[in-house]
User: Which sequence fits this backbone?
């Protein structure tokens, strides 16, 4: 029982971080219809940038925000240079996808060349250990959970209560109509990539903080979890990605605790396979009809 | 064995196996448009199958239980089994939920499958020995270590390449290749002209996966080991890059792409400097340069080095023997006149190629009756209805888009289906043509219950639709768009396609002639060899109608064909409808242009809020208060 409850705690923490990243990934796909595989490299980049601050004994929570902002700006620039530009030229879905793959690989090896092959370790201040009933959590884990929930709520408010949110939803459904309604679509897209970059950067640093030691593969590993979460919830659906993140986080931690850590990935994959077979468009996905013409990518 | 031999043979085997795989992927992705981002999984499937079947019992792996089979199969047999196994896995994955997804979701799902496969194998030592992988895999040519064996192996791989290129080339050309490309360009439109999209996609996924399996088996046999390191998802990306750089759908392009991308990378890395004080960064630099080069290429030449070329069929001289024009044929004169007139008219200007109603009618009757030489009455005398729709229901969420709608279309008549926006007309049309599943109700074509038939089967028995927004196959030529449609094309069968023109050439030539006559009749002959994507909106609408006619329909379902057309093209379309009625083809016309409805329709059905509100002649409907309220007032 204790193990279960303890794992539940870890699962929720890891699920929150995955959910943050998954929402960011989902936003890009939803708004731009770009499957941005370079997202994983941005996660890794965030972890290394956070490490640079960590070495200077920068406050760890402040560094999450600072790196988040930095990645957000980079994300906007990146979209303008590559996927956004390709889409404007009428490049197909698969072409754009391949371009992001290469961008991800290129940037990753730039990081590897600069940072070297050795794994890095954060100096982490986990704060006090607190016990609630059977839950044992550190204050920093609580901060992560709280911050993630707050961010999700903020994103929810943004989508439902603000002009920008409305514009984002309109753009994701039909950018052409959105433009003819007077929505400045390119600025909305910039905003979306800024938000997704922010979420990506923050979750990248938090991932490094929770795993403590990380290397250049951090991004790819967690990108898979985030894609799993996003697909589980229905890609492009922010609430789906949140739920998916929690499910994937919990499942991987529980399987890791009860069988072997090697099976953590397998757990995520079993969930995904089941979802793909039973409800391929995900929990919250709307009809993914084939009428959209993207053929030949 | 000299170092040069050693190096060159390794390079040749790697490139050869990659070439086999790239050709397979080209058939799947480049020709048919399946975004298979899990392609390397099928490659690995071949490698593992070969390994498991050829290695001996467990002991030589230090007690690993993975090799319980210990079959020590003959390598040649193992390679064949590996191919078949991969092909089967390809078909099975194709049969899962994937096929119901939109293209971008499919790409994502394939990517996930790639992660899943490697994750599961890597996590579990019991499956193919997990991360360390399989080793001591026997070389198909035995254990001789000399240069001779290595070069013989290159020969074996070269044979594999020849097999792959012949297979892929034959499947990707002729009527089959045309149908596959139609599926790539627009799956729904392809099924609307009677193509069995699922079967064709499964076929290419099977062939593609089988070739990947062959390549995998050959590579594993050469290296002697196989582990998850060898099949990361980036390998698929490299192969897709090969296809993109070479030119999607181009066999030559893929070969050049393989040499450029893989050869360039493997060889180019050798010339890179090592960063001072950073041993081992050479390959990292290689990756950075490769990424930059790939992105640069995508921007500069997105269509690839060798863009797909489509045949120029309109330039072929007419085949006198296949052409139905003969002195005994009463319609021949009319046809020739029509062709001559439209050719002349084109130079005159505005009246260009106007369809003469009688010519088209005569043309169609002759074609339909010729298709049924044994006296089958293609155009039955008007009597019972050709289409009978009973109590159709279809709800979206809480809205009943179609609510207990029943109506019929008599033989040889043009029936209009009108109503305000949202009345359920297009949904009804979608249900009748099989693109939308009804919640309840029946659709009968010529007395036959077709409610459960998939859309492509309905098209094959003469129930053919067009779309509200014309849907051409943009990368095929106009003429090819027409040639996709005809039924019973021999060249669409896999075996005939492999045999080649000898198996289908005569039929194909006759079809080309027929398509050319039709396109001439509609005044688009000058665009016959232009990519259909470059046509104007009105021209695409005409093209779509011609494509439907190539199927010899009994009942045409036209979804707002007149919307947004110039008067000239509207007139052409109207004439065509009248001509078809003359020829005995029935038409169900969803239309807002009431002028056209007036001129064309024998009977008009008025829908509102999913129900049939009124039925009768257009002039009577105009007088009905209900109809005025629902439609003309709002």
Assistant:
């Amino acid at each position: 029982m204790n193990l279960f409850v303890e794992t539940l705690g870890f699962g929720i923490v890891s699920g929150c971080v995955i959910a943050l990243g998954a929402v960011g990934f989902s936003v890009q796909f939803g708004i731009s219809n770009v499957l941005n595989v370079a997202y994983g490299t941005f996660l890794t980049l965030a972890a290394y940038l956070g490490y640079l601050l960590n070495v200077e004994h920068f406050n760890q929570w402040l560094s999450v925000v600072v790196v988040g902002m930095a990645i957000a700006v980079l994300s906007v620039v990146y979209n303008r240079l590559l996927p956004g530009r390709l889409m404007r030229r009428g490049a197909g879905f698969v072409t754009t996808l391949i371009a992001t793959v290469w961008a991800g690989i290129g940037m990753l090896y730039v990081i590897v060349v600069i940072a070297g092959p050795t794994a890095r370790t954060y100096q982490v201040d986990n704060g006090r250990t607190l016990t609630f009933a059977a839950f044992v959590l550190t204050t920093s884990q609580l901060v992560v959970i709280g911050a993630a929930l707050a961010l999700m709520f903020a994103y929810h408010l943004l989508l439902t209560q603000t002009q920008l949110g409305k514009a984002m939803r309109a753009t994701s459904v039909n950018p052409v109509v959105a433009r003819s309604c007077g929505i400045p679509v390119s600025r909305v897209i910039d905003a979306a990539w800024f938000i997704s970059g922010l979420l990506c950067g923050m979750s990248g640093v938090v991932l490094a903080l929770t795993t403590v030691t990380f290397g250049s593969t951090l991004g790819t590993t967690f990108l898979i979890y985030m894609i799993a979460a996003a697909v589980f919830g229905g890609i492009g659906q922010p609430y789906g990605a949140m739920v998916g993140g929690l499910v994937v986080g919990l499942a991987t931690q529980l399987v890791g605790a009860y069988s072997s850590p090697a099976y953590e990935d397998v757990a995520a994959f079993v969930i995904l396979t089941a979802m793909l077979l039973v409800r391929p468009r995900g929990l919250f996905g709307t009809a993914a009809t084939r009428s959209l013409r993207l053929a030949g990518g | 064995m000299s170092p040069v031999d050693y190096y060159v043979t390794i390079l040749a085997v790697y490139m050869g196996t990659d070439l086999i795989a790239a050709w397979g992927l080209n058939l799947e992705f480049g020709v048919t448009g399946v975004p298979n981002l899990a392609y390397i999984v099928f490659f690995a499937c071949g490698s593992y199958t070969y390994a498991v079947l050829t290695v001996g019992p467990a002991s030589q792996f230090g007690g690993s239980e993975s090799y319980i089979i210990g079959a020590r199969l003959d390598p040649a047999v193992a390679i064949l089994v590996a191919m078949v196994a991969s092909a089967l896995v390809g078909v099975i994955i194709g049969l899962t939920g994937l096929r119901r997804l939109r293209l971008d979701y499919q790409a994502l799902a394939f990517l996930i499958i790639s992660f899943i496969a490697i994750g599961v194998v890597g996590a579990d030592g019991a499956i193919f020995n997990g991360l360390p992988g399989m080793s001591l895999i026997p070389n198909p040519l035995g254990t001789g270590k000399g240069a001779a064996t290595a070069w013989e192996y290159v020969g074996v791989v070269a044979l594999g390449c020849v097999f792959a290129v012949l297979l892929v080339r034959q499947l990707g050309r002729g009527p089959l290749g045309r149908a596959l490309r139609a599926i790539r360009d627009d799956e729904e439109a392809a099924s609307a002209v009677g193509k069995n999209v699922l079967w064709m996609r499964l076929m290419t996924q099977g062939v593609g996966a089988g070739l990947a399996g062959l390549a995998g088996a050959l590579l594993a046999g050469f290296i002697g080991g196989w582990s998850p390191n060898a099949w990361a998802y980036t390998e698929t990306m490299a192969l897709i890059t090969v296809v993109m750089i070479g030119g999607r759908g181009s066999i030559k392009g893929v070969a050049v792409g393989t040499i450029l991308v893989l050869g360039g990378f493997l060889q180019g890395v050798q010339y890179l400097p090592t960063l001072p004080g950073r041993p081992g960064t050479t390959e990292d630099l290689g990756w950075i340069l490769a990424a930059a080069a790939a992105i640069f290429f995508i921007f500069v030449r997105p269509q690839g080095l060798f863009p797909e070329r489509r045949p120029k069929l309109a330039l072929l001289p007419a085949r006198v023997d296949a052409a139905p024009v003969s002195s005994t044929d009463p319609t021949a004169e009319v046809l020739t006149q029509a062709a001559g007139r439209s050719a002349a008219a084109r130079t005159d200007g505005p009246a260009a190629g106007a369809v003469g109603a009688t010519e088209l009618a005569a043309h169609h009757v002759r074609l339909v009756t010729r298709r049924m030489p044994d006296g089958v009455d293609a155009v039955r005398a008007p009597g019972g209805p050709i289409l009978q729709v009973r109590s159709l229901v279809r709800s979206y969420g809480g809205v009943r888009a179609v609510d207990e709608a029943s109506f019929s279309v008599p033989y040889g008549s043009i029936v209009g289906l009108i109503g305000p926006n949202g009345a359920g007309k297009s949904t009804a049309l979608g249900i009748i043509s099989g693109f939308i599943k009804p919640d309840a109700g029946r659709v009968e074509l010529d007395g036959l219950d077709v409610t459960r038939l998939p859309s492509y089967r309905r098209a094959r028995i003469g129930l053919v639709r067009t779309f509200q927004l014309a849907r051409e196959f943009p990368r095929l030529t106009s003429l090819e768009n027409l040639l996709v449609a005809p039924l019973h094309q021999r060249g669409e069968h896999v075996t005939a396609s492999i045999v080649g023109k000898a198996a289908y050439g005569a039929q194909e030539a006759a079809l080309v002639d027929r398509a050319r006559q039709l396109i001439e009749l509609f005044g688009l002959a000058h665009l016959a060899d232009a990519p259909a994507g470059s046509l104007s909106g009105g021209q695409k609408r005409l093209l779509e109608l011609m494509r439907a006619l190539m199927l010899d329909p009994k009942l045409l379902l036209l979804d707002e064909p007149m919307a947004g057309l110039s008067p000239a093209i509207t007139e052409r379309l109207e004439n065509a409808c009248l001509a078809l009625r003359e020829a005995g083809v029935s038409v169900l016309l969803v239309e807002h242009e009431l002028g056209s409805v007036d001129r064309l329709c024998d009977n008009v059905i008025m829908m509102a809020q999913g129900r049939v509100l009124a039925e009768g002649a257009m002039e009577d409907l105009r007088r009905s208060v209900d109809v005025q309220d629902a439609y003309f007032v709002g």
Summary: Chain A has a mean pLDDT of 84. Residues 10 and 253 of chain A are 7 Å apart (CA to CA).
